Amino acid sequence: MARRIWDHPILDFERGEPLKLIFEGREITAYPGESVAAALVAEGVDILGWSKLRGRPRGFFCGIGKCSSCLMVVDGIPNTRTCVTPVSPGMRVSRQRGPPPIPDVVPEFDLEREEVDLAILGGGPAGLSAAIAAADLGASVLLVDENFRPGGQLIKQTHKFFGSRENYAGVRGIEIARRLLSEVGGLGARWVLRSSAVADYPTGSGHRIVVRRPGGATLVDARAVIVGTGASENMLAFPNNDLPGVYGAGGLQTLMNVFGVLPGERALVIGAGNVGLIVAYQLLQAGARVEAVVEIMPRIGGYFVHAAKIRRMGVPILLRHTISRVLGRERVEGAEVVAVDDSWRAVEGSERTFDVDMVVLAVGLTPSVRIPAQAGADMIYVPQLGGHVPVHTPRLLTTLDGMYVAGDSSGIEEATTAMLEGRIAGAAAASDLGYAPDRAERVISEAQRQLESFRSGPFSSRVLEGKEMVWEKAREVIG
Amino acid sequence: MSEPGVMPEDVLGGLLPPDRAAERHPVAVIECHEEIPCDTCRWVCPVGAVIKPSITTPPRVDWDRCTGCGTCLMSCPGLAIFMVRLRGEWADVYVPYEFSPLPRRGEVVAALDRMGEKIAEAEVVLSVRSRDGTGMVAVRVPREAAHVVRAVRAGGSR
What we know:
The structure holds 2 protein chains of 2 kinds.
Chain A: E1 19-23, E2 26-30, H1 36-42, E3 49-50, E4 57-58, E5 71-74, E6 77-81, E7 92-94, E8 110-121, H2 125-136, E9 141-144, H3 173-186, E10 190-192, E11 196-202, E12 207-213, E13 216-227, E14 231-233, E15 246-248, H4 249-258, E16 266-270, H5 274-286, E17 289-295, H6 304-311, E18 317-319, E19 321-327, E20 334-339, E21 352-354, E22 358-361, E23 365-367, H7 370-375, E24 379-382, E25 387-390, E26 403-405, H8 415-432, H9 437-454, H10 461-478
Parallel strand pairs in A: 1-7, 8-9, 8-13, 9-10, 13-26, 15-22, 16-17, 16-22, 17-18
Antiparallel strand pairs in A: 1-2, 3-4, 5-6, 5-7, 11-12, 12-13, 14-23, 19-20, 20-21, 24-25
Helix pairs in contact in A: 2-3, 2-8, 4-5, 5-6, 8-9
Chain B: H1 9-13, H2 19-24, E1 27-30, H3 40-44, E2 50-51, E3 60-61, H4 71-75, E4 81-87, E5 90-97, E6 108-112, E7 118-129, E8 135-142, E9 151-153
């Protein structure tokens, strides 16, 4: 199964010496730095398990530890998220059927404690920028991230960013990640990788955060916390939407652009927002065919220039169309698309079948806000921002003392605004803790100015509408 | 209704260079008409030929200043900048290229229009790749295709 990409116009996949996993008794080739799920998909294993009740096949979907579609038994431990677990030689991996077996090994568990000025949950564009701003002002910083490769979604963004010169315009996301990570390292911020913040308890003088990590847990006592936990991909309801071969757009980007794995030959992309248009282009770069991009609205939601890039390579964009079902039993073997009328009903007789082995969903994101919700921050439902978000001020302070939010977890937007929000939140947290307040306030007002300029066009009007609602609520609650 | 992802004719008319400018040397053609927050083309231009009063104002080219250096073409995050040089019966069309492998000078490729339809077989007259991976490929096409051809496809791939 030749699914690994070796020749790519933008990326160099420097793979080390291959190693072997033991997958249900047979050897599987993997490369250092791959996730278990990516290695299995690369070797042609599309079914990573079966659903508990109806035994339906489950495959790779989100690739960042959020969707539970890739839970497997790894070295005797069930329910392991294989998409955020790195491979190691001789690792034993098997699929789960029905309720997972109770492990016959007792996992090691130790409890550690950490004290820090500022804990940052999520090492993506928001969290990294927050860490740089806060550490630069003198605060000690601890970054927590679920993945074993930090950088959030930047590490799969092979396209160059829009924006202004001071905010990495014209630089690819992968390169921005490199620069931010090196800056964070230079400022002495500490990392806890492969670890999930599972609870936050406000203590009055700060936050006690429970972090689950390999081999145990860490109790982090932080004077302040920034939530930069990003978002999860939206699902769309249609028959067979759970079959392996239906990927979240971000999940497919992870496979293609982080691990260099192209799991099929022909794709159908659902959604013509920027994410859908970009992933379609990246599929072409990876060597796949894109049969069509399908969009239910009467116009594309993303930028014209992103649409033009794929259109001139011959990819059709079907407006007022949607996916009606996926064909196949064990994995995607095709997809049916229908036209919709003015009331969004399928037009009879308009069904078209596409011979595809990948269906890529780019139908929006939902903010990941479990931690602020659990900790007791006021939440507000804002459709323009993708769902529930913590109420927050323009300084990104939530209704909880010492808890800030930035990036997609404060409302779905994009990576440049996430970096700017992160900078504001990081500087605000440092300032509120008493670190170089004068300098911090200058950082904040400059970042706010840049944010305002970036959001000045028509593409940001919906987001701004949502942010206004959030800020107004914050004024009522916080004053 | 216009075709999604294809520049409407009425907008395109206002973006194209006058023949006299494109006859001297290549000039940039920026097919970017939406108010998106980006001004990379403005600040990378070494001669100040891109007019963009604010970050969300669509760019315009000052044809008298543009030298056809190709910097903006290879920098534009939207891959929305092309160059055109008119040469009598022929025209050289320069397009950004981010696929692998990069077609080589002398190679014959398919010249495509804005919908990916093949307009002509065309010879590659220039081919470079920048350090960040974006290539620039120029193909020689009949003059009437100067503002029709906007992509190339190397032999074999779709």
